[in-house]
Amino acid sequence: MTEMNENPLEILPEIFLVAGAVVSLLLGAWLPRHRQWIIGALAAIICTAGIIAAAVTAPGPPTSVFGDAYALDALTSAGRVIILGGGLIVLALSLRPLHNDPRESEFYVLIQLALLGAMVLAGAQDLLLLSAGYLLASIPAYTLAGFRKDAPGTEAALKYYVVGALLGIVMLAGITVLYAGGRSTKYTVLADTLDNAPQAIIAVGTLGLLAGLLFKAGAVPAHYWIPDAVQGSTPPAAALIATLPKVGALTALFRLGTVPLDAAPLPWATLLAILSAASMTLGNLAAFFQSDVKRLLAYSTISQVGYLLMPIALATSTGEAQPALLYYLAAYTVTNLGAFAVVCAFPHAADIDDYRGLGHHRPLLAASLVICLLGLLGTPPTAVFVGKLVVFTAAIDGGYGWLAVVAAVNTVVSLFYYLRWVLPTFARTGDAPGHRCESRSARTVAYACAALSLMTGMGSGPLLDSLSGAVSR
Hints:
By secondary structure, the chain is mainly α. The chain has 20 helices and two strands. The protein has a two-stranded antiparallel ribbon. The longest helix is centred in the middle third of the chain and has 32 residues, at 151-182.
């Protein structure tokens, strides 16, 4: 029988979010509307405390707690810091749009619950806990997508929910099949018992499990909800939906590939490599024709997931896969949220043409936008450039040179639609209504994310070294 290690201090960041959500919900019922910002400040304090707790416990040896259901290793620690750091950014982006909203406190509670779900996905080492993390990351996000209760938001929430519910059922069916084949839901046990299970059962269960995680990651073929959900949501909610759940889902995929499915007969690595190539290619091609900035970033997100799937396909082929994935996740989170911060700063600028001449009227914000967009492209010395470089190197070392070539070609192709947004910002034109910056906090976040993207890229060496810890088994 597995020994139960139930020390609550081991999951302190998660406990902070649970307690914060409950306290925020109760406190929000008593505070007057003009004081609801206190809930947002409390959520920011909780995220900061969670980051500190995660950083303090990160150097420890890899282990598992609560009956081997939750892993404490480099994957979990990095996932916690990235998700909570991204949550801080989203909270800052929400301050101005949600100010004096009658449901402002509820928005902050939903953010905390969505962050908690993503963190559970990142650390789950049991299929049942993985399904719980899936639901916890999904249900608050559905509500955030339709938070403003207008027609686009309702449509976004409905499409997001229908696809998520369908693939969630498929995922639960896959977990059931894997349990039937492996006689357990724990990764550590499945790693041994699945070797003797019928190959058909393993294949069906793995594909069902993969469907749910691909939905949370926004990868092909479970990607088609992203453009509508991102476009119909408020900019802060769109920033969260397009970025943070992916951190938990992709980390969960990496853990599955290294522990229970490492020796499974299904060609896991080849399948993920194909999905990686399909995601980056389809996302880039679809982004060519987008003029709506949120839809463009949504398709850009799909293409970025394609690059992020590369190190997951290489999980057991090279030791460079894990630091490549974690570093790229951090770089992508900062850079993508920085681009959304500019969108949040100009809520009336929905189209690329609405940013025409921005460089002359708001030069610092235009510079931040350019750094983030070219950062998503992979231009040196930004963080995503280093992330792509490490991922491409890992692909070649792991025997997937063809995938590195596909990724390099897609990187060049993506230059077209990023420049479609960048070039108009430097056109000489009169001031436009869309250039009115209505959120000082969003403007500050855009500056900070752009600077952090550059700093992370130039200081990548120590970060990569710190992300190479062993995975709990």
